[in-house]
Amino acid sequence: MNLEAKAIDIRKDIIDLIYKAGCGHIGGDLSVTDILVDLYYKQMNVSPENINDPDRDRFVLSKGHSVEALYCVLADKGFFDKKELFDTYSGYLSKYIGHPNNKINGVEMNTGSLGHGLGVAVGMALAGKMDNRSYRVYAVLGDGEMAEGSNWEAITAGAHYNLDNLTAFVDRNRLQISGTTEEVMTADSQENRWAAFGWNVLSIPGNDITAIDSAVSLAKGTAGKPTVIIANTTKGCGVSFIENKAAWHHKVPNEAEYQQAMKELSERRAQYE
Amino acid sequence: MNKIANKQVINDVLLEESAKDKDIVVLCSDSRGSAGMKPYAEQRPEQFIEIGIAEQNLVSVAAGLASCGKKAYAVSPASFLSTRSMEQAKVDVAYSNTNVKLIGISGGVSYGALGMTHHSATDIATMGSMPNMRVYLPSDRLQTECLIRTLLKDDKPAYIRIGRNAVEDVYQEGNVPFELDRATLVKDGSDVTIIACGELVGDARKAAQELEEKGISARVLDMYCVKPIDRDAVIKAAKETKLIVTVEEHTMYGGMGSIVAQIVAGNAPVKVVNLTLPDEPVITGKSREVFSYYGLDAKGIVKTVMEQL
Ligand SMILES: Cc1ncc(C[n+]2csc(CCOP(=O)(O)OP(=O)(O)O)c2C)c(N)n1
Ligand SMILES: [Mg+2]
Predict the structure, then answer these.
(1) b/e sequence B191-220, b meaning 16+ C-beta within 10 Å
(2) Fewer beta carbons within 10 Å, N or C terminal of chain A?
(3) B258 and B284: one domain?
C-alpha cells in the first residue's frame, strides 16, 4: 500500500466528514493524519480482527479533539461502518461524538480533556510489562497540550519505569487555539524537556511518512527507556489555505472552501494513479 | 430574540471596570476565544494573563495574584475549571479565602456533541461542596450584569457558571430585580413553585404561563444564588404552595434540587420533584435537544406539574 496516497484519501474523508457535520477540529486532524496512517496501516498490530486480543498494540489519542482523523482511519480499516459514521457524526443521538469514546470499536480510551492520554498510556505499558506481553503502546499529544502539568507527571513515571514499550508523539504544529504556542505559553524546546526527563528523543519532519516510519522503527529497537517522537508538523497540512492558521483550529469550511480543499487534494492524489 | 451571550456581558463589564480599577486581572487558559474575552485581552493586555492549557495553574496563579491584592477573574470552560482545578479551587481559593472569581464558561451541556469530557453537569456539586465557595448560575444577560457588578465589590471567592450561547431575556432592560443571595421572584403563584437556575429559568417562566392557562397558579423563583441558597424563599414556597419542582442543568446528586430538598425536608415538608440531567452521560445533541429529551424544558416542566400536583 502507498501510505502517502492513503494519507491523502484520509484527508479527503476528514474534510468530507467535517463539512457534512458542520463541526470538527480540522487543523489538528490534518496535522496528525500522517502519524495515524503510519501507525494504523504499517506499524501497529491492531485490526478489527484482533480487537479483543490482549496482545494487540494500544493507541491513545490524547489530543482527543482530532477525533475526525482517528474515526476516518478506523472506518477505513473496517472497525465500524463508514456510512453510519458519515450519516450521523455529531448528530442528534449519535454514538459518534466529537471526541474518542470507547463505546466505538477500535477506540481504547475516552479522551477530550487534554493531559490524560499519556498517563493512561503509561498504565497500559506497565500492564504489558507486568503480564510479559509483547504489545506496544502509542500516544499522541498536542504541543499546546504539553502545558498540562499532568503530562509531566506521566513523563516522569514513564522514564522511572523504563517503559521501552511506550512511544509518545508530540504533534509539534506550533499552534493552539489562541495563537502560536510560543505566544500563548512557551513550549520550546520539547526535545530538551523530554530528554531532561530521561526519554529517548527523536525529532522529525512530522508530515513525512517515511521519516515517521523510521522513527517508530527506531523506537521499537530502543531498550530501557520510552521514546518520544517530536513530530514537527504543519497544522492544517495538505490544504494550502488551512495550513498554519490558528483560526482553522475548529473552523468549518464553507462550500467554496470545501470545493477548493477537495480540488487541491484530488490533484495531489492523481499523481499516485 | 436576544443575541448577547452572558459571557459577552462579563467581558464588557470587566473591560469597563478595569479601566478604573487597575487591580482587576483576567486569566485565561487558551480559552479567551470561547470565553468571549478577546476584546478584554486585546484592549487590556497589561491586566490580562494567559496561562496556556493548564487549568490547575490557572487557579493557583489567580490565587497568588489575589493574595497580593489583585481581583482575579479566572475564565475557563466550566468542565475543566470545576473538575481539573477542583483542588486548586478548594485549597488556594476557598480555604485560603482569596479574592478569586472562577468563571465557568460553556457550562452544563453547552458543548453538545463534544461529549462528557466537555460537559459540566457536576459543577454545583463539586464547587458547592467546598466550605467558603459561593456558587452562582445567572439566568439571562441582564442578571449576569447585576451579578458581576455586585461581585466586583466584594473580596470573597465565588464560582459563576454561564452557558455558551445567548439565551432569551428573562428580565427587562432597566428593570432587573436583583439582591445578592436572594432568589428573584419571577412570577408569584399559589399552587406550585418552580425553582430554576441558569438557562432553564426561561423555561420555568414559560411553563408557568402555560400552567396559568390550565388554571394552575405557579410561582417561579430564579435561584441564581445556588450557594448560599435563599433558604427563606425555599421555606416560604414550601409553606405556601403544595408542590416544589426544581429545574437545573446538572446531574441529580448534589445539585440545586438536592439543596432545596434538604431544606424543605428539615423545615416544612412538602413534595419536591427534582428535574435534572441523568446520572449517566447525556444523549448527543444541542443544549435544547438535551433539555427536551430529559424533560427540562417548558413542556417537560408542565407535564411534571400536571402529574405531580
Ligand atoms: C483540559 C482541557 N483544556 C482545554 C481544552 C480545550 N481545547 C481543545 S483543543 C485545545 C488546543 C489544543 O492545542 P494543541 O494541543 O496544540 O492541539 P492541536 O494544535 O494539535 O490541535 C484546547 C485548549 C481541552 N479539550 N481540555
Ligand atoms: Mg498544536
Answers:
(1) bbbbbbbbbbbbbbbbbbebbeeeebebbb
(2) C
(3) yes
In the predicted model, what is the mean pLDDT of residues B62-72?
98
Any atom of ligand 1 within 6 Å of the Cβ of B84: yes
DSSP class of B35: T
In chain A, which residue's Cα lies nearest the Cα of B283?
A: A93
Residue B24: predicted pLDDT: 98
Supply the pTM of this predicted model: 0.97
Ligand 1 touching residue A113 (CB < 6 A)? yes
Asked, for residue B175, whether it belongs to a domain, the answer is no
| Boundary-marking domain end, from B168, B198, B227 | B168
Name the residue ranges covered by the structural domains of chain A: 3-270
CA distance A234 to A205: 9
Looking at the structure, tell me whether residues B213 and B270 fall in a common domain. yes
Domain residue limits at B161: 3-168
- pLDDT, one tens digit per residue, over B82-106 is 999 999 999 999 999 999 999 999 9
Domain endpoint, select from B168, B203, B234: B168
On whether both B156 and B189 belong to a single domain, the answer is no
A235 lines ligand 1 (CB under 6 A): yes
User: A212-231 burial, b for 16+ CB within 10 Å, e for fewer?
Assistant: bbebbeebeeeeebbbbbbb
Q: What percent of chain B has pLDDT over 70?
A: 100
Q: What is the pLDDT of residue A168?
A: 99
Question: At the topology level of CATH, where does A3-270 sit?
Answer: Rossmann fold (3.40.50)
Residues B11-43 have pLDDT tens digits of 999 999 999 999 999 999 999 999 999 999 999
**Pair (B154, B22) in one structural domain:** yes
Q: Which of residues 73-102 of B touch A (CB under 8 A)?
A: 79-80, 84
Question: Are B134 and B214 within one domain?
Answer: no
Mean pLDDT by 10 residues, chain A (273 residues): 97 98 98 98 98 97 98 98 98 98 97 98 98 98 98 98 98 98 98 98 98 98 98 98 98 98 98 93
Are the Cβ atoms of A94 and B28 closer than 8 angstroms? no
Number of domains in chain B: 2
Are residues B94 and B206 located together in one domain of the fold?
no
Indicate whether B255 belongs to any domain.
yes
Best to test chain B binding among A94, A118, A178 (most B CBs inside 10 Å): A178
At residue B28, the 3 state secondary structure works out as strand
| Partners of B187 in the β-ladder | B220
Mutate to test the interface with A, among B26, B114, B120 (most CBs of A within 10 A): B114
CB atoms within 10 A of CB B108: 29
Whole-number Å distance between alpha carbons of B31 and B13: 18
Q: Identify the closest residue of chain B to A182 by CA–CA distance.
A: B52
Whether pLDDT at B1 is above 90: no
Same domain, B117 and B201: no
Q: Please indicate, yes or no, whether residues B256 and B299 belong to a single structural domain of this protein.
A: yes
Q: Do A110 and B116 touch (CB under 8 A)?
A: yes
Give A100's contacts (C-beta < 8 A, 6+ positions apart). Answer: A61, A64, A67, A70, A107, A109, A110, A111, A112
Q: How far is CA B265 from CA B43, B219, B250, B284, B305, in A?
A: 50, 20, 21, 35, 19
